[in-house]
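Hello,

Our lab assistant flagged a job as stuck in the queue for most of the afternoon. It eventually completed. Since we weren't sure the result was trustworthy after the delay, we are filing this so someone can double-check. Below is the sequence as submitted and the structure that was eventually returned. Let us know if re-running is recommended.
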Amino acid sequence: MNALAKLKTLTVPSIKQIAIRTYALKSDLKIKWVRPEKIPCYKPQKSGDLQALPQFAGNELMKDYRESKELETANEHVRNLFTLEHNRRREMVENFKEDMVRRVYRHDLDYGSMEAKLGLMTARIRSLQDYMEKFPRQSVVKVQLKELIDKRKRFLRYLRRWDYRRFEYVLEKLDLVYKPYPTHFHWITRKDSLRKLTNIHCDQIKETRLEEYRKQLESQQLEFLEKKLQTLEFIRKEQTDCQVPVTVTKEEIQTVRKQYEQLKQKRTAMAESLKASEES
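-- returned structure --
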């Protein structure tokens, strides 16, 4: 019994060990981390749809009655029975499906090519997304929408692999952005995010200090060129007086003098423009 009691005291951690977390990243920097908002996969921000379901005026005829000659001369009340406004929502979706297919189809009877299938799926996805905005608790529709988005991603991945020009053409015509699955999955944790924010903060400090140092050097550049010009002239004069080989040429002195004059003119022009802006 004594051995069992000793074993329990060794294995059971104390309350202080449970309460204190030693694995979190500690930092004295005033960096606040906010967990990013989770966007569901069926939302347009994740699915890649840049365009929503269009709002039809309602006075358009249904798909099967557009070329009807009887409706052209029919009464207004009879004609209203065959418009999208006075029929089911499915008729409007069928209208939109045909419009999406006509953007990318190869010929008038094309409903089986890869482009036509992508157009049909895109129209269906956008109609379900519009439905989910109104009824977000419809779990069955949500599952159907997720499966359809995954299927379209597989089709786009196949088209991207085998015909990239057609892939870009479909994305442009259907207003899509291809968002593939990430190659490596990782959880968004507070520790990793704080480490990234700390690195960004350090980079910003480095950039600001380098910018300040650059401005300081630029402010001393005119004085440095003036001293350099005087030193070169003095060295050349002393070498010629002492009759030793001259190491400083006239071209070097002329180059430094030209740099000095250009910088001086630039500084005066900047000062005049600054003064004029302050007076105005």
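-- support follow-up --
The delay was a queue issue, not a problem with the job. The result is valid. The chain has twelve helices and no strands. Residues 15-20 have pLDDT under 50 and may be disordered.
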